[in-house]
Amino acid sequence: MERLAHHGSLRLRGKDIDVQMTQLTVHSGKADKDRFTTVPATLTPLLQHHLAGVKTRPQQDSAQGHGEVDLPHALARTSPHSAKAWGWPSVFPARNLSVDPQSGLIRRHHVDPSVIHKAIQVAVHRAGLTKTISAHTFRPSFATHLLQRGTDIRTIQLLQQGGQGVPSPLDDLGV
Q1: In the chain, fewer beta carbons within 10 Å around the N or the C end?
Q2: DSSP tag of 59
Q3: What CATH number belongs to 2-173?
Q4: How is the chain split into domains, by residue range?
């Protein structure tokens, strides 16, 4: 789980989700590559609701004098005003503000990996599953479900280029 703290989905920012194009970008994932995937249509309303709530956090933090987010180093130098722009806050923000160890500023970072790990374990228990499941289970499972539904392997590989036109396997569940 620690890997997710530094890479991947926990570090998703608002700019990484394009609801209209039903695409999500995960930066610096496995092998330090950017990955693109489709956003499940069934989750779009929930995602939009979640993002609307997340958008209010930086404004609340700013009112307390702490509205800036951590930026990639080059961007922090060339475009420091981006630290207050909507696209940069975490999609999964931590509950509390904390001191940024690098800058010494008080900021809201992404949620701690242990929170996601615990949530997955609770869901596994509630579902009555006996297999060992972690956050790392989902990416290969996603590809397996695409293959089972008849999606061409080249199309799955091209998901790295963008998720447009490929429905998410989650939409097949009728949730």
Answers
A1: C
A2: H
A3: 1.10.443
A4: 2-173
